[in-house]
Amino acid sequence: MAEYQVPPLYQGPGRPARLVILLSGTGTNAQALLDACADPAYGARVVAVGADRDGIEGLERACKAGVPTFVVRTQDYPDRPAWDQALTDAVAAYEPDLIVSAGFMKLLGPRFLARFGGRVINTHPALLPSFPGVHGPRDALTYGVKITGCTIHFVDSGVDSGPIIAQAPVPVLADDDEVSLHERIKSVERTLLVETVGRLVREGYRIEGRRVQIGGFDQ
Q1: Domain that holds residue 156
Q2: In this structure, what CATH number is given to the domain that contains residue 74?
Q3: Any binding-site annotation on 80?
Q4: Which of 140, 118, 144 is nearest to 128 (CA)?
Q5: Which of 87, 165, 171, 183 could serve as a FRET partner for 124 with CA atoms 20 to 30 Å apart?
Q6: In 3D, which of 23, 24, 19 has the Cα closest to residue 34?
Q7: According to the model, what pLDDT value does residue 2 have?
Q8: Is residue 110 pLDDT above 90, yes or no?
Q9: 108: annotated binding-site residue?
């Protein structure tokens, strides 16, 4: 990933940072961000929630909060590059400062990353670089680790391979199965996501190679 320096996005009352959330399911992480943004001191507001499918709870949560929604389904386009362009255009229409992939179960394409590189973050239910991909909790259990957790990272062209912003541990209990472990990870993940997004927009950040520094800008 190229180097980025992004000063604080929050410019004071009346000028919160603009967030677009992408999701594919129930939207519990999105709800946590919507709740946090209700406090003006948080420094951000959700300007849109997008999805790759219709009729999901995450979109309903956004509607109840009065947040615009959009859907860009892969099956509505002839190929992935066309879908990638459509998603890019849909998100760009809301002029986001930061994009949060919160349970969005599609890989973001090269057009999207070229437009928004260094401004897209993702949540993952494992301590990367261990156990990337869609089965992080299951893979951690299978491997027999005693501690797993969650990771917030910037998105690059790989699978859960971008620079790590923040992590939090979750112990693996003797009687855990995939469902119980994942639920405990998600609880920690929601808190970490809210804290991390808030810090990014209020303090600014730098990406230098694989290192992410939050804050340190002259005010």
Answers
A1: 16-127+151-165+188-214
A2: 3.40.50.170
A3: yes
A4: 140
A5: 87
A6: 19
A7: 66
A8: yes
A9: yes
